[in-house]
Amino acid sequence: MARIRTSGFEEQREAILAQAARLFAQRGYPATSMNQVAEACGLSKPTLYHYYKDKYALLVSIAEGHVAKLEGLVSDVAATGLPAEQRLRELIRRFVEEYAHAKDAHRVLTEDVRFLVEEDRERVLEKERRLVDGFAQVLGEMRPEMGTAGLGKPLTMLLFGMINWMFTWLRPDGALDHEAMAPIVADLFLGGVPAVRPPVTSLPDRP
Predict the structure, then answer these.
(1) Residues of the chain with pLDDT > 90: what percent?
(2) What is the structure's pLDDT at 187?
(3) What gap in Å lies between CA 162 and CA 166, rounded to an integer?
(4) How many other CB atoms are there within 10 angstroms of residue 200's CB atom?
(5) Exposed e or buried b for every residue in 59-84, given b needs 16+ CB within 10 A?
(6) Is 56-195 a domain of CATH 1.25.40.10?
(7) Which residue, 57, 62, 74, 86, could crosslink 134 as a Cys pair with Cβ 3.0–4.6 Å?
(8) pLDDT of residue 196
(9) Could you state, in order of their start, the residue ranges of all structural domains in the chain?
(10) What whole-number distance in Å separates Cα of residue 134 and Cα of residue 152?
C-alpha cells in the first residue's frame, strides 16, 4: 500500500528545497553536497533521502518549481481581462516581486540549468519558452506590427534581460527594493517600445 503523504511531508519538502536553493545559489550546484543540505536543514542524511533521492532530484525540483510558479503568474494575469498595456505592467510587477522572494531559485535556474540532463533541461526550457510566448502575445496586442515584423519575442527577451538579472545588482538593503523597481522597469520598457521601428526586412518571431 502506498504511503499517505501528509501536509507536513510536503511542507518539509518545500523547506528542504529552499535550503538547497540557497546553498546552490551561494556555492554552485557542483560544489554543494547532500551532507551540506542535510546540515542546513537540521536533518540527518538518511532523513533527507526520505524526501529526495539525490542532489540531482533537488536541482530538477528547484528549476521546475520556479518556472511553474512563473507560468502560473502568466496564466493569472491573462485571466484578468485587463487591457494589454495594463496586463504587461502587471506581468512585470508580479515577475519582479516573485524574483524578490525566490532569488535563490532564480539564480539556480539561470546558472545551474546546464547541469540537467537533456530531457529534463528541454522540459524546463519549454516552460520558459511558454513564458516568453505569454509576454510576446501581450506585446503583439499592443503593437501588432511588432508581431508581423517578428519582433515580439526579441522585445520580450530584451525585457527579460532587464529583470532576470536584477538579483545580481539590486541590494535588499538599498534605497530601492523590488517593489519600487517594478514600475520603473515598466515605464522604461513601455516608454521605449513606441520608439521601436520594424526593420525593412521582417525577422522571424523568435529570439
Answers:
(1) 74
(2) 93
(3) 7
(4) 6
(5) bbbbbbebbeebeebbeebeeeeeee
(6) no
(7) 74
(8) 77
(9) 56-195
(10) 10
Contact 205, 152 (CB under 8 A): yes
The alpha helices in the chain, defined as continuous H runs, are 7-27, 34-41, 45-51, 55-78, 84-101, 103-112, 118-142, 144-148, 152-163, 178-192
N-term to C-term CA, the chain: 49
Residue 123 neighbours by CB under 8 Å, 6+ apart: 64
Task: Please report the pLDDT score of residue 170 as a whole number.
Answer: 85
- Any idea what DSSP says for residue 203? -
pLDDT digits (tens, 9 = 90+) for 106-115: 999 999 999 9
If one counts every other C-beta atom within 10 angstroms of the C-beta of residue 17, the result is: 22
Q: pTM value?
A: 0.85
Residue 8 burial by Cβ neighbours in a 10 Å radius (0-12, 13-18, 19+): exposed
Amino acid making up residue 83 = P
